[in-house]
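In this supplementary section we document a worked example of the pipeline. Step one takes a protein sequence of length 221 as its only input; no multiple sequence alignment statistics are reported here. Step two produces a three-dimensional model, which step three serialises into structure tokens for compact storage. The input and output of this example are shown verbatim.
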Amino acid sequence: MEQKKFFFAKLFDYFKNSFLQGLLTVLPITLTLALFTFFFRLLKGWLAPIYLLEPEYLQRIPHSEIFLVILFILVIGAIFKTFFIRSFLHFIETIFFRIPLMNPVYSGIKQLVQAFTVPEKLTFKQVVLVEFPRQGIFSIGFLTSQVPQEIAPAKHKKFYNVYIPTTPNPTTGFLVIVSEDDYKVVDMTRQEAMSLIISGGIIQPDRFIKRFLIEETLSTK
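The serialised model returned by step three reads:
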């Protein structure tokens, strides 16, 4: 009787472990496909007016509105290189900056995009660790700039602005001012740090995971 119970217990553990292993294998693939499908349908919904305005021969092409938008962006990028169009866009930006409600929104989004896409305009200079929201708890932040001495908490120290994004929406966050002794630079790129923040810590940098696995393998030998 005891042998039967032991056999069924082992059989149950085998099926349970196999199921969990299969679930952990399939889940990342399924969630990735579901996420891309969701954003693809969302994009299709946003571009539906373009599809309705297209000629009939273009509507026969699957997802033609997406290709049109991509082509439009490429054309805008090519035209932007000309001096005249660049001057015109700067003029439009000047108008945006003069509108009270539009100014903070537009400038904030533009700076956030440039921080991650334009190498020569590194707004987020370094990835750092800061004790926030209280001592003993660390948050990932981005060192943005040095605080001018006129508004620094103390004159005998250097202070820095650190932007701490929130999860999973990094466009909102906290701006904290810390001294040069109160933050620690982390060996991470801005893209790696942002992936870590958006995923809630699930997506770790591959190079750290590989290093950890190698160290674990060597320690078990």
